[in-house]
# Entry
Amino acid sequence: MSPATEYKKKDFVSDQEVRWCPGCGDYAILAGVQQVFASLGVPKENFAVVSGIGCSSRFPYYMNTYGFHTIHGRAPAIASGVKIANPDLDVWIITGDGDALSIGGNHIIHAMRRNLNIKVLLFNNRIYGLTKGQYSPTTVPGKVTASSPYGSLDQPFNPIALALGANASFVARTVDTQPKHLKEVLAAAHAHKGFAFVEILQNCVIFNDGAFEHIVDRKVRDDRQVDLRDGQPMVFGKELDKGVRFAGNSIELCSADEASNWNASEATSADAMRLCQGSETADIPVPIGIFKAIERLVLDEEIHQQVAATTEKLGEGTLESLLNAGETWDID
Amino acid sequence: MASTQEIPLQQVDDVVIRFAGDSGDGMQLTGNQFTNTSALLGNDIATFPDYPAEIRAPIGTVFGVSGFQVRFSSNDIHTPGDQPDVLVAMNPAALKVNLCDLKEGGTLIVNTGNFGDRDLAKAHYDSNPLDDADELADKYNFIAIDLNEATLNAVADCGLTNKQALRSKNLLALGMLYYAYSRPLDTTEKWLESKFGKKPEVLEANLKALRAGVMIAENSEFFATQYKVSSAPLAHGTYRNMGGNAALSMGLVAGAKLANLDLFYGSYPITPASDVLHALARYKNYGVTTYQAEDEIAAICSSIGASWAGSLGVTGTSGPGLALKGEALGLSVMVEQPLVVVNVQRAGPSTGMPTKTEQSDLNQAIFGRNGEAPMPIVSCSSPGDCFEAAIEAVRIAVTYMTPVILLSDGYIGNGAEPFLVPDASSLPKIANEFAKEGDTRQPFDRDPETLARPWIKPGTPGLEHRVGGLEKSEGTGNVSYEAENHERMTMLREQKVNGIAKSYKPLEVFGEDSGDILVLGWGSTYGAIRGAVERCHRQGMKVSQVHLRNIWPLPLDLKDVLSKFDKVVIPELNRGQLNRVIRGEYLLDTISISKMQGKPFGGAELFEHFQNILNA
# Structure
């Protein structure tokens, strides 16, 4: 094993030239991930970074780890096989809104249901970038794109609501341009035992520039974001002097000392569902941070426990026992 | 048991029995019991279960008829037989579907207890076919018996409801046939005890029904003769009765063991391949992990992921599932990792006839991917042969770092035959070594002999690298759009796969090395072709047989072998897919024999074809 504790960011930088558009939000995410990986105490060779297809999915080429750039939408399926075959690996999926929520929708929901110990970073820029600007399953209705010249009619997915609904055991949201928050969320995702789903709001400068400006712009973000921290009050504002609280079935603004405490381990996810589906333009700020973090059975562990228990019970199979099992008869 | 009459005991060589009834009548169970008992007596056996896609089709309907054919012989046999000598029809629908196949002079056992007006109507009979009893008796040894009543009488004191009691009627029929063919009851009795030990009243009823069948056969005049079928001259050794899907599963496990790898099987349930998933799920103590994926695509992708991580990734499916896996097959070709893809073929296209057999996925296997994506193809020729074929697929996958398609089909997957258990030490090891820390090879450097790249699994310090579906630069494996590199990599992938043919065993020609006709086959047609060619030999016809284990790349000696015959005939359960490949590869004017009925070839049918071709 390598000296796991002495990594620097540069140890995770590959020799490949990064080819995202200048100004793309992916650069900041890449830098953040490289810093976080260096800090986790995991031997570098144990990271397995798996992606699908799309701009974000080029990510593994730029990480100096084991990486697998697979096919469109299938990263969760491939990563599941990787994790089950070798649970010692630290498996990270890099995906986008098209890759994960459109062509790979089936795989992502089943991966969340199964709760393998895998981390997913979904770069949500609300547009198809690599195919040159068509609307995606998270595009805001009315958006004029290459494939919706008169405005998109599709109703979008809310990625957080989808993950909560599919029973992911860890659900979080962070922002490409907020490195401190991004790194905290990634570290928390890594610390979580089970499937961690992280939506990263990411800007596409070419096809959907400013998609999240109303939430993430420096001038407004203190007032437009509330960071969900488990066990802590839901406060926001530059001075953290404003709060959000639950009142019956609704959510309302309040002063900081009246704010409700956030509970990320609430089993039904009812509050998380309510919070994540609020309007992005209403008074209530948009939640980022950790919506959910609960412990439940982890599939890769369960599989290997069952294999071990069966082997314990039946004895380790050999070629001889394989061939001679069942009813046999001899012909002399 | 006191015998009321002495009937003659006659020696026969070869008998085919078909049990036919409703899906819920237990015909598969009855056939399996007869098979196991006969196998233990040392007969050579071959079976052909033929069941509907509906799990419990409406009772009494023609489309709900479930059949099980077993052939047992004192000779070396290759197929479950063309025409049954004995037909057991449990209801009018079973009679309607199967009577046309019964050999003239054969034995017809009909359960008259199910021939009421409603039963007849469900089978769309206008009148009761048993009314012409004389006509049936002229043509067959016609045994009309009310199995329902006989069963109710036999199990009267077991404390079961009539409905429960009637479930044992298949065992009464089985008992009759055990008597007629001089089979002992102990194999089935033991099986019943293990199966129903916890339900003593059901066990008792089944045992009573089985024994009552023997008594009824013995004390009636149903059978003018009792038959004996001696053991077959099978090679010395230990045998098991082996179904095709079971043998294939066992072969995959053995292959993984021989390569010293754990096996990961990602699959999605599909007829007729699901039994491979079921079988492998029981092999957990053999280093096997099974993963029931959310769909066919996830099934193959999880297996590709497992191979990347250092397991032997295997996925299994049938035709429509293989279509869904196409893109991932291409990825597997591109990243050059071991992967075995099992396709237990069924009649297509689309959903087709899921429970009926066909060999129509050969084109899909050879060509069914975007881009130039060559992939080796191995095929199974009989139920027991699935074992060796699976090991061969693993050998190629691991040795050449390539995906391999292993073609079986519903006919051999569901069929069974005696399997000579090989000595474990006789199975050759499959060489495999993962790259270790300090290895100086690049990810896409190649072995000079096999052109295989090194297998570098994540977790190995110092060898971190990236793989993926984008074209890669020779050696480093880094992404490359360079024109000449793409052509070079295309050729290297092709040469690697073509080179596999150098590792094949020489082709075996059954019959003379030259002559009038060479019958070239692949897959499940092996038995029918062999039977027909043997018959040709007995008649002095110059007909030989070559059966392909490896379909792609084609064997290097094949062209030479084919050139020594006047005519090359290729029988296939498709519209001539191998035929087209052979014509394309060798510019030979080959003759296709095609059948598309969801049923295997019969030996007699092929013999007639060969005769006509010779005389043409």
The radius of gyration of chain B is 27 Å. Chain B has three domains: 9-228, 240-426, 515-615. Chain B has a mean pLDDT of 95.
